[in-house]
Amino acid sequence: MEEKPKLAFVGNSHIAFWALNIYFPQWECLNYGVPGEGLAYVEAFDVDTSDCRVVIQFGSNDIYQLNDENVDGYVERYVKAVLAVPSRQTYLFCIFPRNDYDDYSTSVNKFICMLNQKIHRKLEGTDIIYLDVFDRLLQDGRLNPELTIDDLHLNGKGYSILSEALRRTLEQPLKQAPDL
């Protein structure tokens, strides 16, 4: 029997709660998602995933430690942590929007959008494939409640958006090193 290709998923609750075997039955899915985790977890991640394509998503649990003064340092650490995870190919999802305020404020998601832009710019020139689904998860500047179970964690509709975006990129061949 032919061995299934491996997909390793690293990140927070959005990864931990993803029913990977339902969405990716043709892959051997390894789930290293841990609810509540963020940058420190990815920086300390020491599992050998070098024989896997790796999918990473984190950052929303770090948001309230960030401000205009420390955001650039966070972006540096974020990108360094993502690049340090061994893989055949790495796919990084953007930081997802969240709904934390009863007053329907959109300020946290404006900050996350700016943070995502900084991370995306910092990844230019790397082999990381960036999956930006931020706008697809939004409605009126907030995380679309129809995509969540509790206004924060995704439901099946939300995970379908992620799965579709990832599947489209997985169907493409691995990025090859240029011939020298």
What topology does this entry show?
Elements: E1 6-11, H1 13-16, H2 20-23, E2 28-33, H3 39-44, E3 53-57, H4 71-84, E4 89-93, H5 107-123, E5 129-131, H6 134-137, E6 138-139, E7 142-143, H7 156-170
Parallel strand pairs: 1-2, 1-3, 3-4, 4-5
Antiparallel strand pairs: 6-7
What can you see in these coordinates?
This protein is an alpha/beta fold and 180 residues long. The protein has one domain (6-170): 3-Layer(aba) Sandwich (Rossmann fold), CATH 3.40.50. The protein is 36% helix and 16% strand. The chain contains 7 helices and 7 strands. The chain has helices spanning 13-16, 20-23, 39-44, 71-84, 107-123, 134-137, 156-170; strands at 6-11, 28-33, 53-57, 89-93, 129-131, 138-139, 142-143. The strands form 2 sheets. A 5-stranded parallel sheet has the order 2-1-3-4-5. Helix 4 (71-84) packs across helix 5 (107-123). It is globular. The N and C termini lie far apart (36 Å). The model has no long low-confidence stretch (mean pLDDT 94). InterPro entries: SGNH_hydro (IPR013830), SGNH_hydro_sf (IPR036514). This is SGNH/GDSL hydrolase family protein. Keywords: Hydrolase.
Number of strands: 7
- Provide mean pLDDT, rounded: 94
Strand content: 15-25%
Q: Uncertain regions: pLDDT < 50 for 5+ in a row?
A: none
Short structural description:
The chain has 180 residues and is an alpha/beta fold. It has 7 helices and 7 strands.
